[in-house]
Amino acid sequence: MSGYDLIVVGAGIVGAACADCAAAEGLKVAVVESGVVGGGVTAAGMGHLVAVDGLPAELALARFSLGLWEALKDLPGAEFSRCGTLWVAGGEHDHAGIPDKLARLHAAGARAEAVDAARLRELEPSLAPGLAGGVLVPDEAVVYAPAVARRLLERTCARGATLLHARAVALGDHEVTLDDGGVLAGAVLVATGTALPELLPELPLRLRKGHLVITQRYPGMVHHQLVHMHYTDSAHGETDSVAFNVQPRPTGQLLIGSSREYGSNDTAMSLPMLRRMLQCAFEFLPGLRQLNALRAWAGLRPASADGLPYIGRVAGRRGIWVAAGHEGLGVTTAPGTARLLVDQLLGRPSALDPKPYDPVRVAA
Length: 364
Ligand SMILES: Cc1cc2nc3c(=O)[nH]c(=O)nc-3n(C[C@H](O)[C@H](O)[C@H](O)COP(=O)(O)OP(=O)(O)OC[C@H]3O[C@@H](n4cnc5c(N)ncnc54)[C@H](O)[C@@H]3O)c2cc1C
Hints:
This protein is 29% helix and 29% strand. By secondary structure, the chain is an alpha/beta fold. The longest helix has 16 residues, at 330-345.
């Protein structure tokens, strides 16, 4: 048995960020990954770094994390592009939500400005005519998350951490057993994304399928990450839903989302859902109909019981920690998650109150 300060199980963007942060603090770190580093949900997502403002604690973690992303944006392969987010208001109902959205973003320290119909057309001439306006958040960005996870892991290992290609099969007091029979001793962090219930069944987790489509290269057609004003209604709703969400990749490709559905626990594509998602995108960006799509796929978002991730010590277990349940915002919030987790591990205060994310809330 060998001893570590922290054993991170799972090397998606969340586990990789936690391992990187712990190693940077001088902790002795091991990482256990059963598949490909960054190859889980992290490879299935969009990579939009965005302050979603549906829940106050979600917004706070996103804003905290966006600040920390500034130190990661130059990692090789990150494909960081500060395209900004343009929240698009379709009609009067959407438009009426602009002042409240601005107020929430400003209160959280974000730069954001209201955009009228004419300015919207100026910013994004390919949008459909007749849209009401929106909100521009100029500092937000997109990244290629699987590459970031890999780079963070490389950096962690360069600082002396050990990467083990194995599957964690059981947790004990301050230890984890691997499928090869090995046992690692130390504080254990479970960051296994959608596989969370296998090791920590006491933490509720639901899988939420989302589809994406990527096109061939059409540079200049879209300039900002375009998201419908009421995207968060879809993100926090209980029913199957779609929302307009289009991202310009630095390659000139367009990434088209988004859909959400519970109750489907594999990554098989649902053609009716894909059609619904694309119809929604065509209404806002009619020119998309003429483009060639290269690939479409579905991924599963790991959704916690209340829309906030689980970050912290697991109640009722000794030496077991968790960082999971980030639903559709785990790329954005990975650096903030890592900071909160490592601060708690080291017994020191964080710049952000960790309480809303404490997994003890679901036990209570
Ligand atoms: C369609 C879609 C769009 C999205 N768009 C965005 C977006 O624009 N912005 C954003 O911020 N987020 C987005 N997300 C969400 C984001 O992708 C996830 O929240 C995030 O990737 C979760 O990362 P993770 O590290 O928790 O999980 P994963 O990336 O799944 O990592 C978990 C890792 O643990 C490993 N593992 C599992 N069990 C074990 C075990 N027992 N032993 C060892 N290893 C194990 C797995 O192999 C995997 O590599 C999107 C998600 C989807 C599906």
